[in-house]
Design goal:
Keywords: Lyase, Purine biosynthesis. The protein is mainly α and about 450 residues long. It folds into three domains: about 100 residues, Fumarase/aspartase (N-terminal domain) (Fumarase C, Chain B, domain 1), CATH 1.10.275.10; about 250 residues, Fumarase/aspartase (Central domain) (Fumarase C, Chain A, domain 2, Up-down Bundle), CATH 1.20.200.10; about 80 residues, Ribonucleotide Reductase Protein R1, domain 1 (Orthogonal Bundle), CATH 1.10.40. It is built from 19 helices and six strands. The chain has a two-stranded antiparallel sheet. The chain has a two-stranded parallel ribbon with strand order 3-4. A hairpin with a 2-residue loop joins strand 1 and strand 2. The longest helix has about 40 residues. The chain is elongated.
C-alpha cells in the first residue's frame, strides 16, 4: 500500500479548518513566532528610546521598517525561521537571529547586540503567549461565545410565554416556559464570559531567574523594574514582577478553568436541547441536500448538538490538563510547560468548533408548541403542588380544618394520571374558602408557570 500525500493529522487542520482557522492566526507555531518577533523588536526599540548604553532613538522610518518584520510576517519569515531553527535547535534563538538579520538589512548593525538584551527565552515567551492567547480569546473565541449567548437570549425572548412541562429527575413536574429555561443558560454563560473578559494576561521581563541580575550588571543606575513594567504594559499586557525564570502561569490556569467551566455549561445546553428534540418539543428545520441517515430517509439527526458535546469533552479535557500542568514548575524552571502550551490552540480549537456547532444548531430548530401543549394537558397531576400549597395557606388563615394536605394530594396523584375533571371535582370537595377554590379552578398546567415570563424579561 502506497503512502498518502502529506495529510493533516488533526481534524482541526483537516475537515474542520474552515470553522476554526481564525485561531491559527494567533495560536499556531507561526502565530507564536510572529508575536516573539514583535516582542523582540519592541524591546530593542524601548532600549534605544531610553538611550541606554549611549544609543539614540531609532529614526521613525527605520522603526516602521523594523516593525514591518512582524506586521507583515508571512511565509518568507516562517520558512526563514524553520531553516534557522533546524540549525540552532532553539526556537527563540532563531527569532533573535531573524531580528538581527533585519537590522543588518537596515544598516543598524550598531545596535544588534541589544537584540534579546538581558532576556531569558521565557521573557520573550511569556509576553508572546500572553499576546497570542489574549488576541485569540478576544478576537475569535469570545465573539463566538457571545454569539451563542445572543442566540439564546433571542430564543428566550421569543419563547418567554411558551409553557412546557418540566421534568425534574426526568419525571413530570411543575411547568415552566421554554424561554425561561433557555434564559438560565444565557445567564450562566454571561457570568462566566464576564469573568473571562475581566481576567489578566500576565507577562514577566526580569531575566534568567526573575532578579534582573544581568540588567543591573550592565547598567546599575537604570530603573529596570520600571522600564520592564512600562514595556509589558505598553504591549497591552499585565506585568508580573515577582517570578522565577518563568511567569507562573496562574493567569492561564484561571483562564482555562473558566473556559472549561463555560464548556461545561455549553455541554449541559447541548444535552438539554438534544433531549427537547427527542421529546418533540423542538422540531429540526431540514437543510436542503443534507442526509440524516444513510438508510432511513426520514431522519434529521441532532448532529450539531452531538458534535458540540464531543468537542466540548475534548476541549474540557485539554483545558484541565493545561491547568493541572501549568500550575507547577520545579524550582526555578522546568520544561513541561513548553510542550503543554503548544496545545493551547488545540483546546480552544475544539471549544470553538463546539460553539460553531451550537450556533448553527440553535438556528436550525423550531418550537413545536402543540407538542408542549399536549404534554401539559396529559399531566394535570402537576397541579397537586399548587392545591396542597393553597390548602396549607387556608389552614394557616383559619379557613380550613384539613389535616396533612400533602398526604391527601399524594394519595390522589402519586403514580397515576389525574384529569381536569377529576381535579375540579376534588377541589370542589375541599374545605377551603371560595376565593381559594376559584383560584384553583382557574389553574391549568399551561397557566401554572409562576413568574417564568417575567424572569425572562428581567434576565
Amino acid at each position: 500500500m502506497t503512502a498518502l500525500p502529506p495529510q493533516p493529522l488533526s481534524p482541526l487542520d483537516g475537515r474542520y479548518r474552515a470553522a476554526v482557522g481564525a485561531l491559527a492566526d494567533h495560536l499556531s507555531e507561526a502565530g507564536l513566532n510572529r508575536a516573539r518577533v514583535e516582542v523582540e523588536v519592541e524591546w530593542l526599540i524601548a532600549l534605544t528610546d531610553h538611550s541606554l548604553f549611549g544609543t539614540t532613538p531609532i529614526a521613525d522610518t527605520d522603526k516602521a521598517r523594523l516593525r514591518s518584520l512582524y506586521l507583515d510576517f508571512g511565509q518568507v519569515e516562517i520558512d526563514w525561521l524553520a531553516e534557522k531553527e533546524a540549525v540552532t535547535r532553539h526556537d527563540v534563538k532563531a527569532v533573535e537571529y531573524l531580528v538581527r538579520h533585519r537590522l543588518a538589512e537596515l544598516g543598524l548593525d550598531g545596535i544588534a547586540e541589544l537584540t534579546h538584551f538581558a532576556c531569558t527565552s521565557e521573557d520573550i515567551n511569556s509576553a508572546s503567549y500572553a499576546l497570542t492567547v489574549r488576541r485569540a480569546v478576544e478576537q475569535v473565541w469570545m465573539p463566538a461565545l457571545r454569539g451563542v449567548i445572543a442566540s439564546l437570549d433571542a430564543l428566550a425572548a421569543r419563547h418567554r410565554d411558551a409553557a412546557m412541562l418540566s421534568r425534574t429527575h426526568g419525571q413530570p413536574a411543575t411547568p415552566t416556559t421554554m424561554g425561561k429555561e433557555l434564559a438560565v443558560f444565557a445567564r450562566r454563560l454571561t457570568r462566566v464570559a464576564d469573568q473571562i473578559a475581566g481576567g489578566e494576561y500576565l507577562a514577566k521581563f526580569s531575566g534568567a531567574t526573575g532578579t534582573w541580575s544581568a540588567h543591573l550588571a550592565a547598567e546599575p543606575d537604570a530603573d529596570w523594574v520600571a522600564l520592564s513594567r512600562a514595556f509589558i504594559e505598553g504591549l497591552g499586557l499585565d506585568f508580573n514582577g515577582l517570578t522565577t525564570q518563568i511567569e507562573s502561569h496562574d493567569w492561564q490556569v484561571e483562564l482555562y478553568d473558566r473556559a472549561r467551566h463555560a464548556g461545561g455549561i455549553l455541554h449541559n445546553l447541548a444535552t438539554d436541547v438534544w433531549t427537547y428534540i427527542s421529546l418533540g418539543y423542538f422540531s429540526q428545520i431540514p437543510v436542503a441536500g443534507a442526509t440524516g441517515s444513510s438508510t432511513m430517509p426520514h431522519k434529521i439527526n441532532p448532529i450539531r448538538f452531538e458534535n458540540a458535546e464531543a468537542n466540548l469533552e475534548i476541549s474540557g479535557g485539554l483545558f484541565a490538563t493545561l491547568s493541572q500542568t501549568l500550575v507547577t514548575s520545579r524550582l526555578q524552571r522546568d520544561l513541561t510547560d513548553s510542550t503543554t502550551q503548544r496545545n493551547i490552540g488545540v483546546a480552544f480549537g475544539h471549544s470553538l468548533l463546539a460553539l460553531d456547532n451550537l450556533q448553527r444548531g440553535l438556528g436550525e430548530i423550531a418550537l413545536a408548541q402543540p407538542v408542549l401543549d399536549a404534554d401539559l394537558d396529559a399531566n394535570w397531576e402537576v397541579l397537586a403542588e399548587a392545591i396542597q400549597t393553597v390548602v396549607r395557606a387556608e389552614i394557616t388563615a383559619g379557613r380550613s380544618q384539613i389535616t396533612d394536605p400533602y398526604a391527601m394530594l399524594k394519595d390522589l396523584t402519586r403514580g397515576r394520571r389525574v384529569g381536569a375533571a377529576e381535579l375540579a371535582e376534588f377541589v370542589d370537595g375541599l374545605d377551603i374558602g371560595d376565593a381559594a377554590k376559584q383560584r384553583l379552578h382557574a389553574l391549568t398546567p399551561a397557566t401554572y408557570t409562576g413568574l417564568a415570563s417575567r424572569l425572562v424579561d428581567e434576565a
